[in-house]
Amino acid sequence: MTQNKIFGAGSVSYEKQGRAGKKSKIKRFWEEEKTVLEEEKGGKKDVGGRGGGGGFHEVDVGSGSLFHLVTDEDLLTSITNDGDSSDGDDDESELDESGEDDDEVVFESEDGFESGTEDSGASSLGVENTKDEDGDSSSDYSEYGSEEIEHEGEEGNNDESSEGSMVSHEHEEESSQSKPFCKVKQTSSSNVSNSSTFSNKTLSRDCEKNINNKVAQVEENRTLQQADEYKSDTSDEEDIRNTVGNIPMNWYNDYAHLGYEWDGKKVMKPLKEDELDNFLRRMEDPNFWRTVRDRQTGQDVVLSDVDVDIIQRLQAQKIPDANFDDVAPWVEWFTSEVMQTPIVRVPDHKRSFLPSRIEARQVAKMVHAIKMGWMKPREQKKQSQEPTFYMLWQTDEGVEHMRRVQNHIPAPKRHLPGHAESYNPPPEYLFDKRELKVWNKQKTTPWKRKLHFIPQKYSSLRAVPAYDRFINERFQRCLDLYLCPRARKMRLTIQPEDLLPQLPNPKDLQPFPTVMSMVYEGHTDMVRSISVEPKGQYMVSGSDDLTIKVWEIATGRCLRTVPVGGVVRSVSWCPNQALSLIAVAADRKVLLVNPGVGDHLICSKTDTLLDEPPEHDVIVPERVKTAVQWEQAPEDIWKNGIRVIINHFKEVRQVTWHARGDYFATVMPDGQNRSVVIHQLSKRRSQVPFSKSKGLVQCVLFHPIRPFFFVATQKVVRVYDLAKQELVKKLYSNSKWISSIAIHPGGDNLLVGTYDRKMLWFDLDLSTKPYQTLRLHGTAVRGVAYHRQYPLFASGSDDRSLIVCHGMVYKLVIYCPFIDEMFVPPVLQGNI
Amino acid sequence: MAVQVEVRFVTKRRQFAVPDTPFTVPSNVGSRELNSLINELLKGRDPDKHCREVDFDFLVCGEVLRVPLSDHLEEHSISSEVTVDVEYFERVPAPEPRDCLLHDDWVSAVQVKNGWILSGCYDNTLHLWTTKGKHQLTIPGHTGPIKAVTWVTHNDTLVTFVSASHDQTAMLWEWNVSTNAVECIHVCRGHERALECVGVSSCQSRMATGGWDTHLKIWSAGKSYFAQTPLMTLKGHKEAISAVQWTDSSEICTASWDHTLRLWDAEIGGIKTEIVGNKSFFDASWSPLNGLLITASADKHIRLYDPRSTEGSLVKSTFTSHTQWVQSVRWSTTEDHQFVSGSYDQQVKLWDSRSPKAPLFDLKGHDGKVLCCDWSEPELIVSGGSDNTLRIFQSKQHK
């Protein structure tokens, strides 16, 4: 009976599920399923039609098996019911009980419905209504149900049939429990709400299904049921009449029994009837046509009228439930139409926010008030006037104290112990005799020891004694911390930009030339060389038109033109201000010209000086004599200003004066070892200082102060000491071809221009390598020059540009090398 | 809709005074519109009297209005919302070229006085011309190009003048106008290099010369025997002295190539003030009317110095319009704010010191470098150049 009860409950839950969706869904499902399932078996379709829940098919299949079980059990009742409908007293006597049951049923079903509503999610209202209806309608059936049960119980007792005995017995024992049983029945009945046929209908329908199965002889349904057997929640509920379960019964074909009862007894097959018996029964038994065999138990079962009716309806392809209203008005719980404003629960977007008009008005009021100055923003609270305390009892001397607090330097960390410190060190850490000896020897100088202790081996940590030097080492550590000053290491961070010199603003470096001021017009051919008078009033220029011209600088007036009879490659004004003299290198001659400008006195003095050649009392060496001959200018060219002619054996490329104006040097690049000649004006004497050719001499230069002589060959500038007659220095230009050199008036800085576009600045005191290399020009640098006073130097190049650089030469201390600073290059672009 | 500016017109000339009420004018007006406005106002003041049209120049914030008013105000960072005082004065009428006196060589020195033009030439001669352009006299005597000439005294018949030359001498000449005879009173020898400039004191008794020997020498301009030797030699400049001018009877202002301007005390013989610029000065002119110095430099700029000021930047303003080396500058002797400058870009320019951006007029005509210019006589602007000409422009000043 308990099994029954449980089983019943299971069916209840199922029924509820089925019902919950029934009203809402059944129609639609039915319509759909009609078409779909028509090909399938009637039983299945039937069940599907009834249980149209959410998971239609699943429920369908599960319920199939369920119904099968239910069928077997309830068939009995229905059959017995049919069989014995005479026990009216009993029925009535049990009526009260059943009434109570009814209440309970209602209660239970309520629960069930609630759960059902929860499950299905359908409107609970409709279900409630139906529930009420159930309550009402079921009162009719309650009798019926209770009757049944009683009947069953009685039947069980009376029949003493093999399957019923056990059940009935239990029932008797638990007569008090008939209530729950009833309840179960009732529940199931009430759940079959609208059906007027009570549970019988269900039962019979299920019966009929089975019959159908039988009649149709279709195994498919069964296999389907088998396959989905375990999907059912109630799969553990067994048919206690035959415990073999839901197996193909043909497995027992070869046996005399069909299965096993609850207590293990064999369920014997009924006696096999032969054709004769069968015929006799058909003839005799009026119910033969409605008798079917329960394959599970092997018993013959007589179908009731209701069952037969359902079977007929099914065979006629009608809805098995006669009361079902298949044309009930359609309740559209979920509309099929697309709604204009779909019901969605997405929270509103911020931009859909509409501020309150009242609030907006208030805010506007406030803004207006602020604008008009009526309302002022709240002033920030003044910082709370905390009382100021003065240091009365303490002085500011506690700097060290504050440093320890604020600028704490942590103590240096000790090394972590190593293997040697281990109580059980590896053997290589243990001292051998020699090491021990050394260790002992260093007793007086313990700081020289490699280890401050002797590694020792103990068998176990337990055996390690107390460390005898603990106090000592602690003390030492304290001393270390206390006595050793700790200093914070400051790391110097220097930005690369800081290392660069501060370049001055070009405006601050004025004066330097910025515009072309004057064009001196008059020469008809290329001007190769110019030289400015020491005073700066006049200028001389030598040109390829075989003349030199003397100009007044300020006005550009050509004051004098002297034809020199050769291409002028170099002109140089004598730096001696007591002389008015220009040295002109024209072809193979060097002419000394008195321009006749400037002080008349000086001019006349110069003339008188050069008038008479001094007496020669020194024999000129042959080597010099063949190279250079001095000659007094003849009368016809004397009036042009030419005073002295010095004939050279090769073409003179350059002439340059010594700062004092007595010596001047000439360069003949083709002159081999006599390419440089130094002339002395006062004695009208020449020397060839170099006996060996060191290369193609490009240009020479006198040091402005010291008796040094610079000779620039193609790659090297050699510095000779004329007094000591020795080579002082060799300056390596690191370039291919030097074009020109210039020396700073201070005498320690040399500027070298090269044909490979570089300008090199040598600091003579520093190095033989260029102090600085300027690659400012795009083409070969032809000439370089220093300004006499201002920290300027200039370079002229083949790219028609003149670059004026600012290069300050500082003299900080005597004997201290110059410190040079570079440059702001204003570029003067000329045009040819 | 243009921005409106409120202006108030003021003037120093009584006959052109307009009501003191502010006017609102569009900010983009130029001087031409303001000019017509003023003329209308003047016409409206006394409609019965027929006024001739007068051209005015307008002075806003101490500078002559050359651009639209809004730009001008923006340049001076003045708000267009305040009332702007606009001073107006009669525009200087354009000088008219009047004559061209041909010389044999570069004309390097010139001065006009009392209807006579004295010019010095690179061919070592002095020339006397009338302002009508009639050549009066050629005076040889120097042996070098003449770099400076100055009139000393003027009597009806007897005129003295001095000339400085590259031959290291300055010569004092006496010219008898009636007989047209010139006599060299004496030759000032003492300089060791070429002379560049000469100046005569306001009392006409002394003169100062400077040159390439960097010395400033003071001579007596009288006929005394001692005039042969310098009264005083002032050393201090490091480069050539390019200009010398007496500011009063005992003070000499010099400009030099060594980038300095100096004021010397001719009595004591010392430097009173030194102004250091950063360019060589080729000429300087001091105006007794406003006490300011203008200088000429090679970098195209004319600079205005105030020798009296001790603070602030030395250069009060820079006049930039020439395209080349400026060789000479001269203040007007009558107008506070006007001066002329001659440059190697073949132009003489007439400037208003309140208009540093642009000159009042460009006086063109020379075919070569302008080596000298003079405006001693208010009506005549004369300039000599390397095209061997002396050009005369007639300046019509309103009186």
Automatic annotation (TrEMBL), chain A:
Residues 252-513 form the BOP1 N-terminal domain. Residues 118-127 have a biased composition (Polar residues). It is found in: Nucleus, Nucleolus; Nucleus, Nucleoplasm. GO terms for cellular component: nucleoplasm; PeBoW complex; preribosome, large subunit precursor. GO terms for biological process: maturation of 5.8S rRNA from tricistronic rRNA transcript (SSU-rRNA, 5.8S rRNA, LSU-rRNA); maturation of LSU-rRNA from tricistronic rRNA transcript (SSU-rRNA, 5.8S rRNA, LSU-rRNA). Residues 84-117, 145-162 have a biased composition (Acidic residues). It comes from the Eukaryota. InterPro entries: BOP1/Erb1 (IPR028598), BOP1_N_dom (IPR012953), WD40/YVTN_repeat-like_dom_sf (IPR015943), WD40_repeat_CS (IPR019775), WD40_repeat_dom_sf (IPR036322), WD40_rpt (IPR001680). Component of the PeBoW complex, which is required for maturation of 28S and 5.8S ribosomal RNAs and formation of the 60S ribosome. Required for maturation of ribosomal RNAs and formation of the large ribosomal subunit. This is Ribosome biogenesis protein BOP1 homolog. It comes from Coptotermes formosanus (Formosan subterranean termite).
UniProtKB/TrEMBL annotation, chain B:
Its main location: nucleus. It is found in: Nucleus, Nucleolus; Nucleus, Nucleoplasm. Residues 5-73 form the NLE domain. Keywords: Nucleus, Repeat, Ribosome biogenesis, rRNA processing, WD repeat. InterPro entries: NLE, WD40/YVTN_repeat-like_dom_sf, WD40_PAC1, WD40_repeat_dom_sf, WD40_rpt, WDR12/Ytm1. One of its GO terms (cellular component) is nucleolus. One of its GO terms (biological process) is maturation of 5.8S rRNA from tricistronic rRNA transcript (SSU-rRNA, 5.8S rRNA, LSU-rRNA). The keyword Coiled coil does not apply. One of its GO terms (molecular function) is ribonucleoprotein complex binding. Transmembrane segments: none annotated. SUPFAM superfamilies: WD40 repeat-like (SSF50978). The keyword NAD does not apply. Required for maturation of ribosomal RNAs and formation of the large ribosomal subunit. This is Ribosome biogenesis protein WDR12 homolog. It comes from Coptotermes formosanus (Formosan subterranean termite).
